[in-house]
Design brief:
The complex is a heterodimer of chains A (259) and B (366).
Chain A lengths: L1 H28 L15 H8 L1 H34 L2 H16 L2 H15 L4 H26 L3 H8 L4 H30 L2 H6 L7 H10 L4 H32 L1
Helix pairs in contact in A: 1-11, 2-11, 3-6, 3-8, 4-6, 6-8, 7-8, 8-11, 10-11
Chain B lengths: L3 E12 L2 E12 L3 E5 L6 H9 L6 E6 L2 E2 L10 E4 L11 H11 L4 H14 L15 H13 L5 E5 L7 H18 L2 E6 L2 H7 L2 E6 L2 E6 L1 H6 L4 H6 L4 E9 L2 E4 L2 E4 L9 E7 L5 E3 L6 E10 L4 E7 L4 E6 L8 E5 L6 E4 L4 H10 L8
Parallel strand pairs in B: 3-8, 3-9, 6-7, 7-8
Antiparallel strand pairs in B: 1-2, 1-4, 4-5, 9-10, 11-12, 11-14, 12-13, 14-20, 15-19, 16-17, 16-19, 17-18
Helix pairs in contact in B: 2-3, 2-4, 3-4
Classes of the chains: A mainly alpha (259), B alpha+beta (366).
Chain lengths: 259, 366
C-alpha cells in the first residue's frame, strides 16, 4: 500500500520536473506582461505580433517545408535501404546496422560541423544544404522504423504475387508496400519531428538568411528574451507533440496488424 | 499414356558450396499427380522452385510442353504454386486474394466475380468473400491459397508441403479434397512432402529423393513393395534392414542361416541388404519357425502390436502382428520367400552411414 503511494508520488514528481518548465513557458506566452514572475491577465497579443512578424512567418514556412521534404525523401531512401539490408546475409546486415546506428548516437555538434565542412566544398550554404543534412540524419530513423515491420512480413507473399502473374514492380507496390506502410509512416513522422526539433545541425549548415524556428528563436534570444519567443516556442512544442501523437497512433496500428 | 508436360534435363543447383541437386533428369506427364518425397534438405523444394521459376538451375534445362522455359520468370509460366505457409496477401480480403491473378490479366469484373464464386465452391468455402485471411483457420487459409492458384487455370499446380501446418485429422481430410480437386480440374499436380503416408495416399507417381539424387520413381505400390535400395525401403514405411550374403540365385544367407527367396541375378557370395517389412514377419510356435527367438518388447499400436524379437541367428526383428506375444515368450519366426527384398549394397557414403545403423538389425522409424 505504502509502496503504491510512494510509486505514485515518484511518478508525479518525475512528470512535474519534466513538464513543469514547458507548462510555465506556455503560461507565460499568454501573460499580459513582460514580467517573467507576475501573472497579469490573459492575452493573445504575443501570438498576434508573432503572426505579424514576416521573419518569423518565413522561418515557420521553412521549418514545415524542411520537415516535410526531408522526411519524405528520407522515407524513400530509408525504405530501399531497409529492404536491401533485410535481404543481406547476417554478417553484412550487422555491419550496415552498425553504420546506421552511428549517426543516431553521434554528438549533433560533430555531425553539424562535419556536414558544414563537407557542404561548403560543393554548394553555397542555404536551404539545400540544410535539407541534405536533415535527410542524412533522418535516414537511420526511417530504417529503424521499417526493419521490424519487414521482419514480421511474409516475404513469400511477393513470390506468391509473382507466381500469380505480377511483374516485379506490380508485386512490390500491390503486396509488399501495403504491408510496410505502417512502418514507413512511423518513420516519416519520426523524421519530421526530428527535423523540426533540430537546432545544432541546422545552425551549422544553414548559411546566412535561412532560418528555421529553432535557429530564429536562438538568434532573437541573444538580443534579449521577448514574450513572442514564448509564444513561438509553445507553437513549436505543440507541433512536435501533434506529430508525435500521429506517429504513435500509426505505430499502434502497426502492432495491431501483427495480432 | 499421356504426353510429357514437363521435362527436366541434367539439372544441377548449389547454394554456396552446398550442392542441392546434382544432374537430375525427370519428366512429368500431363494429368499426373506426382509427389516429390524425401527428407528435409533432399532438394525436393528447390526442384519445385525451379519448376515454378523462383530459382534458376546452375546447369541443365527445364522444358514445358516442348518449350525451353529455364530462364522464363515465374509470372510468364503456366504453373501456379500453393506455398507452404499459404502466403495469402494479409491486407486483402479473400475475394481480393483470389482475384489477384485475374486482375493482373485484366479480366472483366463480371468474369472475376464468377470465378471467385466458382473457386470458393470448389474448395467448399462459399460466402467467404469478405473475410480477412487473419480470421481464417489454417485449413481454411490452405483452401483459399488453392482457390487463388486454380482460378488462373494453370496447366500445373505446384504444392509445397501444403498440409505440413495442419493437424492430423484435417490433413487426412485435405488429402481426399486434393484427390477430388485433381480429378475435377484434370490438371497436373506436383506435390512436395516428407510425409510418406501423404505420398502413398494421393500420388499416381512418387519420386523418392535423397541428397539431391532421385532414388526411385514409381507408383505407390512399386515404391512400397519393391524398393530399389535400403534408403527407399527405410524411408517408405518401417523395415528390418539386415546384412546378408547372396549364396546363389534364390538363396540368401542371414546370420549364418540360409533362407529361400525369389531374387536372382546377383553375383555369387555378393554382400547384400535384405529388407523385410515388419508385417511380413510371422510369429508362431517354435517348432513351426525357420528360426526361433525371444520377445523383448511389445507395444500396442491400435491396429496391431509392435513386437521386438531377439532371434537365435543374432538378429533383432521388428514385427507387426495382431496377435499378442508377452515379453519373454519363446517363438518361431517365419518369412515366406516372396517377402525377402534383396538389394545391392549402396554406393554413396551417406548411404553407408544408414547401412551402418542397419547393422544392428533394428528397424528404423521413417
Amino acid at each position: 500500500m505504502i509502496g503504491k503511494v510512494l510509486g505514485r508520488i515518484y511518478i508525479g514528481l518525475v512528470l512535474v520536473l519534466l513538464y513543469a518548465p514547458i507548462m510555465v513557458l506556455i503560461l507565460l506566452s499568454f501573460n499580459n506582461s513582460r514580467s517573467r514572475v507576475v501573472w497579469n491577465g490573459f492575452t493573445l497579443n504575443w501570438y498576434r505580433s508573432l503572426f505579424e512578424n514576416d521573419a518569423i512567418m518565413n522561418a515557420f514556412g521553412t521549418t514545415i517545408g524542411l520537415a516535410a521534404a526531408s522526411a519524405l525523401i528520407a522515407s524513400i531512401i530509408g525504405l530501399f535501404a531497409a529492404i536491401g539490408m533485410y535481404a543481406m546475409r547476417k554478417k553484412d546486415y550487422k555491419t550496415f546496422m552498425f553504420f546506421t546506428d552511428i549517426p543516431l548516437l553521434n554528438a549533433d555538434i560533430v555531425t553539424g560541423i562535419a556536414l558544414m565542412l563537407w557542404m561548403v566544398r560543393f554548394m553555397p550554404l542555404g536551404f539545400s544544404s540544410v535539407l541534405l543534412s536533415h535527410i542524412t540524419f533522418n535516414i537511420p530513423y526511417v530504417i529503424l522504423s521499417i526493419l521490424p515491420k519487414l521482419e514480421t512480413t511474409d516475404i513469400r507473399q511477393f513470390e506468391a504475387a509473382r507466381d500469380l502473374g505480377a511483374g516485379n514492380l506490380y508485386a512490390f507496390v500491390k503486396v509488399v508496400l501495403p504491408d510496410l506502410m505502417p512502418g514507413i509512416l512511423a518513420g516519416f513522422f519520426l523524421s519530421a519531428t526530428m527535423s523540426m526539433d533540430d537546432f545544432v545541425i541546422t545552425y551549422f549548415t544553414k548559411g546566412p538568411g535561412v532560418n528555421t524556428l529553432s535557429t530564429l528563436i536562438y538568434g532573437e534570444i541573444r538580443k534579449g528574451i521577448k514574450p513572442e519567443m514564448y509564444a513561438l516556442s509553445s507553437i513549436l512544442f505543440l507541433m512536435v507533440l501533434i506529430i508525435l501523437i500521429i506517429a504513435n497512433h500509426s505505430a499502434k496500428e502497426n502492432n495491431g496488424y501483427e495480432k | 499414356m499421356s504426353k510429357k508436360l514437363i521435362e527436366l534435363k541434367k539439372i544441377s543447383k548449389s547454394f554456396g558450396n552446398d550442392l542441392v541437386i546434382d544432374e537430375l533428369d525427370l519428366y512429368i506427364r500431363e494429368n499426373e499427380f506426382v509427389t516429390l518425397l524425401g527428407p528435409s534438405g533432399c532438394g525436393k523444394t528447390t526442384l519445385l522452385r525451379i519448376i515454378g521459376g523462383f530459382e534458376t538451375p546452375d546447369e541443365g534445362s527445364v522444358f514445358f510442353d516442348g518449350e525451353d522455359i529455364t530462364k522464363m520468370p515465374p509470372n510468364k509460366r503456366q504453373v501456379n504454386t500453393v506455398f507452404q505457409k499459404y502466403s495469402l496477401f494479409s491486407h486483402m480480403t479473400v475475394a481480393q486474394n483470389i482475384a489477384f491473378g485475374l486482375r493482373v490479366k485484366k479480366k472483366s469484373n463480371e468474369e472475376i466475380q464468377k470465378k471467385i464464386e466458382y473457386a470458393l465452391d470448389l474448395v467448399n468455402l462459399p460466402g467467404f468473400e469478405n473475410r480477412m485471411p487473419d480470421s481464417l483457420s489454417g485449413g481454411q487459409q490452405q483452401r483459399i491459397a488453392i482457390a487463388r492458384a486454380i482460378v488462373n487455370e494453370p496447366k500445373v499446380l505446384l504444392l509445397d508441403e501444403p498440409l505440413g501446418a495442419l493437424d492430423l485429422k484435417l490433413r487426412q481430410e485435405m488429402q481426399y479434397e486434393l484427390i477430388r480437386l485433381k480429378n475435377e480440374l484434370g490438371i497436373t499436380f506436383i506435390y512436395v512432402t516428407h510425409d510418406q503416408e501423404e505420398a502413398l495416399t494421393m500420388s499416381d507417381t512418387i519420386v523418392v529423393m535423397n541428397q539431391g539424387y532421385i532414388q526411385q520413381i514409381g507408383t505407390p505400390e512399386d515404391i512400397y513393395n519393391e524398393p530399389t535400395n535400403a534408403f527407399v525401403a527405410d524411408f517408405i514405411g518401417e523395415s528390418n534392414i539386415i546384412d546378408g550374403i547372396m549364396l546363389s540365385d534364390r538363396l540368401v544367407r542371414i546370420g549364418g542361416q540360409d533362407f529361400e527367396c525369389v531374387d536372382e541375378g546377383f553375383a555369387p557370395n555378393e554382400p547384400v541388404d535384405v529388407v523385410i517389412r515388419p508385417e511380413d514377419v510371422e510369429l508362431g510356435p517354435p517348432e513351426n519357425g525357420q528360426t526361433t527367438g525371444t520377445v523383448t518388447s511389445i507395444i500396442f499400436k491400435g491396429v496391431h502390436y509392435e513386437i521386438q524379437v531377439a532371434s537365435a541367428i543374432g538378429i533383432n526383428f521388428m514385427v507387426q502382428t495382431t496377435l499378442n506375444f508377452p515379453v519373454g515368450s519363446f517363438v518361431g519366426i517365419r518369412v515366406i520367400p516372396d517377402n525377402f527384398q534383396i538389394m545391392h549394397k549402396p554406393q554413396s557414403e551417406d548411404e553407408e552411414i544408414l547401412d551402418a545403423n542397419a547393422q544392428t538389425g533394428a528397424a528404423h522409424e521413417p
